[in-house]
Write a structure and sequence with these properties.
CATH class: Mainly Beta
Structural class: mainly beta
Strand content: 35-45%
Number of domains: 1
Oligomer: single chain
CATH superfamily: Electron Transport, Fmn-binding Protein, Chain A
Low-confidence stretches: none
Order of helices and strands: HEEEEEHEHEEEEEE
Helix content: 10-25%
Strand order of the largest sheet: 3-2-6-9-10-5-4
CATH architecture: Roll
Number of strands: 12
Bound molecules: flavin mononucleotide
CATH topology: Pnp Oxidase, Chain A
Shape: globular
Mean pLDDT: 93
Length: 172
């Protein structure tokens, strides 16, 4: 059965960001918080541009907007951590995407590994070294080499069509 569809010419200056964002919002993703640290200052931002790239070596990519404080800090220091959020961490997603500053204020139980902040109760923690940075429009593609990781059991927080959601699997 064919679905009703709207054709849009994206290769045209007149097409607004909102249309492209709307198209891509149909690709559901998980949600993570990137963290970095520099001279005792902690940085963190919510991202959904996280993708695995290579198995040997273990590489992933994230796309921070050019000029974002966390993205610039991780480029300067060459190191960052990825905290993949669990279904019950919507509050952290919003905290690290919003105006709340400083973002770590009032957060308890933030651990550190190699001086990088790790958010408590996240599904996955990955410690990365910056492998490469590729400028891409108004964002950077940051490729990270994963040096350490930790994985917990649970369901992930999801982002789909502009909303946070989750899908609880039936337990086996
Ligand atoms: C679900 C979700 C996913 C996001 N993904 C990204 C992303 O991949 N790249 C990006 O630059 N901003 C992303 N943002 C927006 C940033 O989290 C937001 O702009 C943040 O304030 C940037 O932090 P900083 O500039 O203070 O470091 C996302 C926001 C949300 C809610």
């Amino acid at each position: 059965m064919s679905r009703p569809a709207v054709a849009v010419d994206y290769d045209h200056d007149g097409i607004c960001q909102a249309e492209f964002r709307k198209a891509m919002s149909n690709f559901p993703t998980g949600v993570a918080v990137l963290t970095a640290a520099e001279n005792g200052t902690r940085y963190g931002m919510t991202v959904n541009s996280l993708t695995s790239v290579s198995l040997t070596p273990s590489l992933l990519l994230v796309c921070p907007k050019k000029g974002s404080s966390t993205g610039e800090a991780l480029k300067r220091t060459g190191r960052f951590a990825v905290n993949i959020l669990s279904a019950d961490q919507e509050d952290l997603c919003k905290r690290f995407a919003g105006e709340h500053a400083p973002r770590f204020e009032g957060l308890e139980e933030v651990e550190e590994r190699d001086a990088l902040p790790l958010l408590p109760n996240s599904l996955v923690h990955l410690i990365c070294e910056v492998h490469a940075v590729h400028p891409a429009g108004d964002h950077d593609i940051v490729v990270g080499r994963v040096t350490q990781g930790q994985v917990a059991a649970g369901d992930p927080l999801l982002f789909h069509q502009g909303s946070l959601t989750h899908h609880r699997r039936e337990s086996a």
